[in-house]
Amino acid sequence: ELQQKVEETEMLKMELQMVETERVRLSLVEEKLMDVLQLLQKLRDLNISKRALGKILLSTLESCHDPQPGQAQLSEVLDTLQQELTACELLHKQPMEQAQSPQSLSNPLVISC
Which Pfam families does the UniProt entry name for this protein (predicted)? Predict the structure, then answer.
């Protein structure tokens, strides 16, 4: 009976470890998904066209084609999509334009009406 309790305890420890591992994995996926959604929101705020967004998505899916779908492929697609969105030129142009606007207003040669 004692041996059975020890075995049950070991099984429960293993299950707990598996659940914790899965929780960590899901937490990482959630963080990555939130990053992707924030990038998509920024692009939407910049009025990116649906066509351009579609091209980014198709490019991501084409670069991640794997005949064996699974958790690893889903993670790869999410990572690649984040990289594609981060590399989007519109996201890099916007901060530069915002940075230039205050400079142009503080230029002493600018006449404001």
Answer: CCD48 (PF15799)
Distance of CA 88 to the CA centre of its chain: 13
**What is the DSSP-derived secondary structure letter of residue 111?**
P
Q: Domain-by-domain residue ranges, the chain?
A: 1-63
**Look-up of token digits 């059975």:** 4
Tokens found for residue 51: 């066509």
The string of pLDDT tens digits covering residues 81-103 is 998 888 887 777 754 444 444 44
CB 32 within 8 A of CB 79: yes
| Measured distance CA(109)–CA(97) in Å, rounded | 19
Q: Determine which helix (DSSP H) or strand (DSSP E) holds 35, and give its type and residue range.
A: helix 2-45
Structure tokens at 27: 């937490």
**Contact, 100 vs 107, CB < 8 A?**
no
